[in-house]
């Protein structure tokens, strides 16, 4: 058991605080002989990197990743850097800490934050930037996710912001290509344009908004998932809920499924290619009985509005006196935006883990091969 | 890693199929010296037991539990049966199997069920009653949950059905005492009366409905939860999502939090008793940064409508030919009803696990003591 | 983490006390589609069963095993019973308990036994027959080992008693065929004849002897083992040391290797068949760097003399008063004898686990396939 | 499951290769509020550091450790650096790699080394200095062990070399104070003087010697250990066997116990202080039934002679042709010497893990408190 690890066979252990010298992770169990360059990891980190638009925190962190172990190249590998099967350690140094910004919350608890609960649990907390509870930790997840994607050739994992505050996208306009064209990872160009104005106003008011993120994995073969307590959806639920500020997770129709009748919800089947059924709908989100069905795996999660806001909130001090807290520092007006690549990374890691779990128990009858 | 286990320090491993000789579980890591009688476990099982009203399956299973190990009594214990710290094995024999009911689905996949995915994964499935994928497995969870409750004196864990199909309770009428007075675990007496008619009609049509269950734990001390990947909410999400037919999990305001602004969502605090803050609201559902805050822990999960229905559905056979499936057998018109005690059991097991995890790393500064 | 489980992917959880209603295990992670009959498990249990000669305890336990879950047969399987990939629960009911034999040790600690330490740890102990600390628990290991053997076709795992008390076999007379012909699992017919007289005398004196067991696995392909902390030899060391009364474990030359020089110890190689090296010696016991080399895996472990003896020993009572303890009950004069099939079972389980671990990370390049 | 982690609640994950940029570890689960300075870790690393005498490798590595996370200090901590309960990442940069020394073994397998088995398992290996299989990895263990010692105040853990090649110390001269006065960690001053000449001769011959190390933990309270598969001795066996070149592990009398009779081996007891028994002997090495008895925990392990020797040995190339291998590079003539602080570190980590496991299941009735 490790509090700071997830996955069983593709196992990720992260470390580091927001204002410490460095953060990073160790990825253990990665198959050998997979080509892996730091630049591939960096490309994913750059999608999550702060300071790229006015809609994310202005902290300037290059998030430059360094591979400390687990890869090898020589003339036998044709100069390509390959994984060796040993643990891959990744390190990202923190550069732009402004710890003094946080001195005011040294002795007060920011409402909605983990300040009080860390202090209650451990009797000590690194208050600088939220310490270990900062969303900065998710950089390590994105780095690990970049490796997970290499374990899963043929699988496409994409995420999008489908709701900003109360404002939802129009599903009829959903376009994956649009996601990379706006600072919100929004798949609806009309919504993206509207959201810019909405979030600008919220930001100037010193307030914040929540969001809903949808992550879809296509190309997942049928058979991944390990019932009863390693169900693919259960592991996705845990993975997504572990992301900072997430308060809800859905698979497929999710909560809307509760309002359906049995006839509507049961995805009908007709004979398909290669001996597998063709599904006529995907209310199930690609998972039945905790095992992938071969359809796209669809997961959504809700992110609460950033708790760090400029509006004063009633709170208490460490010695239990009343105070008002205004969070200065540099913050995202909607942490949900940068949660999009994080959600993708978690999906990738969970699928890589389940691919290896499947291969262990059943062998190689899943449709793809890593490496 | 174990596919059929959950929890780390209060660890539950379940086994058994719907129509096999028996099902059960092994609970490992339970503290010693806790009084435990089979009757206490039986009382919880009886709440989940089928055949108690016309709104659940008519399969008649006494679900009589037998403790095979892990307890001891003699005159030194004053005749009380106490846990010894060794694994507690529980067994429930299956009595009322009617396997021939299922011969029709031997070679066809029921839409919405795990039939296809188990076959795709393992190349074999016990089709009788759904085999391992049957909700019958949840009896073992309820039995384990009864032990977990004994580890957590002072904590009250209660569940209720707050939505049946599209019909929600009126929150203003929420009354925990009402839950035990109707066959739906419904906390709203008006809704309960209406639901009886609604579900009768659905049942007679051979259809089914989904549901939303809410589970609340009161008396949880601040400090339980192990960030980053053993967060209390992440473990709850996994636990609830692992229950049959669950498609979504929320903590506190859940998906509704996405539509709030930062000022609304951040639960303000004022100085409280015993040096701990008094929270003015509980949008967070009692968990901040993955650690309990001392407020009630609030979790909701959505259950899809029962996939076993009498309405014919398009499907395929094992050899990929078109067929129509009608599920006979005996089924719950709303599996969400009996999911209420299951959700309570999962909450109890997760909290017991986190209590022991907390005690390991931090010692005994949590507010309660088992035994 | 589970105190009563071992293995990661072929995972065994045992339960039960010596004088409780039953003992057994749950085997999780077993691949599907492997033929498995209760009779195959029974055959292994019968090799370990007590009361088969005057050199083992006279307790009469049929050790009849019952498979509660995880297998399935119908006409599609040709009537053969196959594993389904779900957990396999096995139960053995206790039949011949004579708990009153142990009332004298209710309040005293038998020297060399776990009586004192269980009481010190848990504050309670099931003293009847040693409760959970009894070697009776090893029946569950042997049952699990029988399944593990089925996962590993082509591997031969055999054990032998190579030392009884101070008396060693003559290596020149080592004959595996001899092992089944005497009540000691002794591979040396001359030694076996001598040991009968020696152990008879010891038994009549109410004393006991220790032993050394050697277990050899042949047909293990190169590549099994997961460095650094899942080394094959480290897992074997843990598995063997967990057997009751074991005080030492060796791989290959073991402690004798410390006295060798580098030239002697390094097993030289010459080109072999199928592209693999041919080793000229096997000082390493088939494991290099924690990974199998393709040579026979050789493991030895030392069992201390049975602590339950008729000679009075100085001890204390639970309330810390001086007493003398004589252990009546029914006991093995040398517990090492019945440890032979237990050691084989642990070897089988460890290898099965590592076969699945290897298949997860590296794929199917190991030489054998289960099922 | 993690191949490169050990411990359950005090969990250590190591990474790094001999000639990569850095090695290190993440320690997860450490209790909060424990004072911890890098200098304390450095002091332990310096005991294991190479190049300190002519009897160890001449590679010059400062082994300077850097704490990347998990600690915090401010004026509230009185300037002391305290653990926070979050993962502690430690990094040691490699400085003195001479990778070209190893180009000769790029395509050949050194007998007795892991060269062949890594290649057979992974299809790739970092041959420079042995890559991941190098004993250089043990620096990370020693660093983790320094933290483990801080978790266990009142416990004294000491190791000594008790046998060099075939040469054993005289037990009558055993003196812990002597261990720090000679380059062998030898507790016998007469033996230490003799060993200098012996090892000089071996070194000049380009040969190597094995060794036996004894590690003793004093002050361990009764009750640590988690039967059946988390026994304290089983975990020690795994921990010690995982150290490079170890081929055998013993607890207490170990293999010698097999030659004793029951009367000799059962450590008798008499009433002791504080309600606990006083043991008249310690054949058991402080562990009964897998649980500590309160006596000193005694563990020995055998290290084979260094496989890297200057004497040519028959071997094969990667393409299965005959060759002779002479290992140049810089090597320890007896790797057992530097295994002494490594063995101590493993003992410390195992005990810290079991202390936390005990505290989880049973609470705080063990005799010491961390922090």
Automatic annotation (TrEMBL), chains A, B, C, D:
Name by which UniProt lists this protein: Chorismate synthase
Alphabetical list of Pfam families matching this protein: Chorismate_synt
InterPro entries found in the cross-reference section: Chorismate_synth, Chorismate_synth_AroC_sf, Chorismate_synthase_CS
Transmembrane segment boundaries: none
Role summary: This reaction introduces a second double bond into the aromatic ring system.
Amino acids binding NADP(+): 48, 54
Residues binding FMN: 132-134, 244-245, 289, 304-308, 330
Catalytic activity: 5-O-(1-carboxyvinyl)-3-phosphoshikimate = chorismate + phosphate
Organism: Methylobacterium isbiliense
Family note: Belongs to the chorismate synthase family.
């Amino acid at each position: 058991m490790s509090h700071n690890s997830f996955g069983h066979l593709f196992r990720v252990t992260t470390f580091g605080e927001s204002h410490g010298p460095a953060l990073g992770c160790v990825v253990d169990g990665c198959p050998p002989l997979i080509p892996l360059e730091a630049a591939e990891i960096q490309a994913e980190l750059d999608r999550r990197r702060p300071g790229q638009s006015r809609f994310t925190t202005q902290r300037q962190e290059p998030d430059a990743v360094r591979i400390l172990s687990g890869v090898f190249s020589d003339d036998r590998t044709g100069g390509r850097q390959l994984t060796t099967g040993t643990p891959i350690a990744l390190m990202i140094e923190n550069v732009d800490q402004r710890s003094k910004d946080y001195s005011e919350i040294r002795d007060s608890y920011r409402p909605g934050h983990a300040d009080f609960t860390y202090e209650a649990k451990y009797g000590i907390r690194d208050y600088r930037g939220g310490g270990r509870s900062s969303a900065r930790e998710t950089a390590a997840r994105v780095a690990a996710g970049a490796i997970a994607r290499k374990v899963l050739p043929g699988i496409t994992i994409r995420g999008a912001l489908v709701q900003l505050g109360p404002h939802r996208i129009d599903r009829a306009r959903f376009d994956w290509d649009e996601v990379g064209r706006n600072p919100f990872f929004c798949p609806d160009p009309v919504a993206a344009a509207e959201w810019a104005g909405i979030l600008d106003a919220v930001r100037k008011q010193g307030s914040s908004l929540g969001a809903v993120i949808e992550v879809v994995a296509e190309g997942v073969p049928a058979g991944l998932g390990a019932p009863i307590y390693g169900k693919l959806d259960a592991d996705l639920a845990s993975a997504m809920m572990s992301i900072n500020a997430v308060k809800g997770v859905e698979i497929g129709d999710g909560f809307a499924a509760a309002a359906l009748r049995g006839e509507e919800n049961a995805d009908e089947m007709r004979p398909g290619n290669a001996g597998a059924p063709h599904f006529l709908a995907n209310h199930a989100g690609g998972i039945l009985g905790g095992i992938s069905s071969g359809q796209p795996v669809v997961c959504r999660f809700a992110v609460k509005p950033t708790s760090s806001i400029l509006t004063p909130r009633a709170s208490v001090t460490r010695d239990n006196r009343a105070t008002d807290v205004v969070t200065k520092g540099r913050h995202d007006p909607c942490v949900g935006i940068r949660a999009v690549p994080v959600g993708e990374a978690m999906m990738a890691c969970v699928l890589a883990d389940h691919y290896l779990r499947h291969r262990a128990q059943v062998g190689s009858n899943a449709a793809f091969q890593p490496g």
